[in-house]
Amino acid sequence: MYLNKAASIFQAIEAIAATASKNEKEALVKQAGSLPLFMRIVRAAYDPFVNYGLALAPMKRDGLAPGSNTLDEEQFWNILDKLATRELSGTAARDAVQNAVDLLDEPSSALFRRIIAKDLRAGFTDGTVNRVFPGTFQEFPYMRCSLQAKSNMVKPGWWDKGAISQEKADGMFANVNRAGDTVSIHSRQGSPFPAGCMPELEAAMVASLAAETQTHGELVVYEEMEDMGVQNWSLLPREKGNGVLNSLLSGGALEPGQHVAYMAWDQIPLSAVKPKGKYETGYKARLIALLGQLKGAGSAGSAVLRVIPTKQVANQAEAFVHYRELLAKGKEGTVVKHPDAIWKDGTSKDQVKLKLEVDVELRITGFIPGTPGTKTEATFGSLMCSSECGALEVGVSGFTDALRQTIHNDRERFLQKVVTVRANSVMAPSGEQGIYSLFLPRLVEVREDKTVADDLQRIKDQFAAAIAA
């Protein structure tokens, strides 16, 4: 039986982490959840609306005597509150956290650092807690796509009415709630963008979107560029654009010449936005209503608020033609939707993601260290892999904890091994060294039967062949 003390709570969390069974984890969470301090720690770590402004808390400084303070003391919770409200930020925040870590004993120091990292390293999430203690955390409904093999697309009659094929956006998903005379913009996890951080877009949303609705779409970032004396907007790559958006989420500001745009694809009444909620109006009717609202500059909307590029297709063959057209333009893929598809919180079998995936052979050239304070700290974070010619390098993950441990225990044997890596595209060099990379690489298998990896040209050729197939 655990006590309502920090050291005992740490033991409870470690016990949950050591349990592989989902049911057993939930039973242990239920047992520990009777302790107020456990629930306080869980809320501090997993509340999606709370961010402490630091990616990681520092380790205890070397040479100091063991700390004697604990998280039973309110002074350390005051530090967390000040971090969350940004009363403490920058150097002052780092100094306050370092001092706290030095003063706390080992169990409380570990918990304090994990709270700041928003990861208790126990193998459960806010969803686990909500299953055991409903309503602990606010849930954010979201309709996911199916992959083709698991969708209704493969069933007879699905194509009788044709389908709607849309570009798969390459930015950050966001919900836009239009209530009264205001809008609020939230990430998929529910984190709110500060009001006024993208005034141009917010004004367009207030002027155009129907009241008492939630609109679904993707945020992307443009930068003003001058070409031959003409001022144009240039779309930032996903990694740079999402960096700007994450900065806005944390209280940052747009730089001069930057613009945030929203590519919308769906809209439902706010009354339907609830866990396991549904909205029975078919997708084609929802899309027509959304198009009617965004009549700004042309039929698709204004420069910063528009409907995602959309095409009506009659059958699967036309859908794949559209898919390959977008891949050839460097896009990520398409999403195909049945015209009668309802909206629901969960995975829709009538909303299907078409996405390019290609397997290539790379060579393991090194081990990228795990992030301090996470479960990979003791092994490694990802495998550094390269093409045979060395012109492409990428960190590869996507393996099980068991395989990670096996590789870590025998690093010399795995170093220089050829592995199969599955990725979605080749990424052009972005730095001065001119090294290519891969988008969303994940390990498929170690190739004991191969000694030569693919070179860059072969990798490019494989992606080109897949696009043209």
Automatic annotation (TrEMBL):
Question: Which residue windows are coiled coil?
Answer: none
User: Which coenzymes or cofactors are required?
Assistant: a divalent metal cation
Catalysis: reaction(s): ATP + (deoxyribonucleotide)n-3'-hydroxyl + 5'-phospho-(deoxyribonucleotide)m = (deoxyribonucleotide)n+m + AMP + diphosphate
Renumbered to this chain, the signal peptide range is none
Keyword entries, A-Z: DNA damage, DNA repair, DNA replication, Ligase
Q: Keyword DNA repair on this protein?
A: yes
Q: Which InterPro entries match?
A: DNA_ligase_ATP-dep_cent, NA-bd_OB-fold, NAD_dep_DNA_ligaseB
Instruction: Write down the Pfam families for this protein, in alphabetical order.
Output: DNA_ligase_A_M
Which one of the record's GO molecular function terms can you name? DNA ligase (ATP) activity
GO aspect biological process, one term: DNA recombination
Q: Which SUPFAM superfamilies match?
A: DNA ligase/mRNA capping enzyme, catalytic domain (SSF56091), Nucleic acid-binding proteins (SSF50249)
Q: Where is the ATP-dependent DNA ligase family profile domain?
A: 162-355
Q: What is this protein called?
A: ATP-dependent DNA ligase family profile domain-containing protein
